[in-house]
Fold this sequence. Notes:
The model has no long low-confidence stretch (mean pLDDT 90).
Amino acid sequence: xxxxxxxxxxxxxxxxVREVVEHFYAAVLDDAELxxxxxxxxxxxxxxxxxxxxxxxxxxxxGYKGRDLADAHRGVGVTGEHYEKVGGVLVATLRDHGAxxxxxxxxxxxxxxxxxxxxxxxxxxxx
Length: 127
């Protein structure tokens, strides 16, 4: 019996995840609305944690060992609108790197599960 590949293996393992994270942060930091969230942030450390987190979400061999997401984002003031925008950038980046819709759907589900730990301010009503 052949074991099915994890999402982590299907996407190309750690090298592919690192590449996705690099392109993801390049796109996020290029966005004038999102860039201020990262002022003064140690991007090398943040990228390393994001690689670990994404590897974990995708079923990689090592679990996430970073700070609790709620603790890491407390006081940052992430809005619901900006959380959705960042999630959209991640989804687009995954697709750009050849991730299939099953993998993308899995990541979208994970984003939904941790949304409450990251978002501090709901999206503002239009008007």
